[in-house]
Hints:
The protein contains nine helices and seven strands, in the order H-H-H-H-E-E-E-E-H-E-H-E-H-E-H-H. By secondary structure, the protein is an alpha+beta fold. Strand 2 and strand 3 form a beta hairpin. Helix 2 crosses helix 3 (82-94). Bound molecules: guanosine-5'-triphosphate.
Amino acid sequence: MLDRSLTDRTLCDAAPEETSVSERIRARLTECGQRFHANDNISAALREGELEALRGEVAERMQGVLSALVIDTASDHNTAETAKRVARMFVDEVFGGRYRPAPELTTFPNVSRLNELMIVGPIVVRSSCSHHLCPIMGRVWIGVLPNAESELIGLSKYARLTDWIMARPQIQEEAVVMLADELETRIRPDGLAIVMEAEHFCMHWRGVKDDQSVMTNSVMRGAFLTNADLRREFLSLRRITRE
Ligand SMILES: Nc1nc2c(ncn2[C@@H]2O[C@H](COP(=O)(O)OP(=O)(O)OP(=O)(O)O)[C@@H](O)[C@H]2O)c(=O)[nH]1
């Protein structure tokens, strides 16, 4: 959870103006005791115009990485703009879930007092591993058992929230727990179940070069933990949508 003081511009401006934008943001986060691991969202610590400045700084440092790799970006027309492209890709796309605020979720009161199992999926997952920054591509299924007091959220918002959580360097075990925490806080259901299965390109493209393996993991909360029939129903309905 983000510390409220991060939204107060008079607080946490610990770093002087002449430091780099990433140093200023980092100083603010440190001052406020806010964690900034690879899979944390830091949007509340960004001031106006800083995202653009950050893109510039990442491009500059990426250029340094290309130089260190002894790539002649000055005469190689293919890599001349690579540093800028990679910076845009990291900040706006593949790690965008770190820098943009959570999507707005339309919620509806549960006027019909629905208390039946609802499953959404497969939702496509595009993420990357924190260890090698290689892609993770997969699918997620979400099961919700609402109660009379639950907020119902628009169907498309499950996919938007999933993308916001996954578009960060992640490990799969933490990614599903983060997604479950967000959904539980917003919906307040009697039960929540998530299954994710994904391919990890750090295992396909490099390293062990195992092309077949898929990682599957799940989170079960509330009624899905205590009620084996409900859990079985979710898992068997997921199997149908999987085929
Ligand atoms: N538990 C878990 N491991 C992951 C995930 N994504 C990638 N990994 C693994 O993280 C490990 C990182 O291991 P290291 O030994 O530090 O890195 P490495 O020497 O490059 O390892 P190799 O990949 O075996 O070459 C690798 O085994 C990856 O397959 C994930 O989501 N969860």
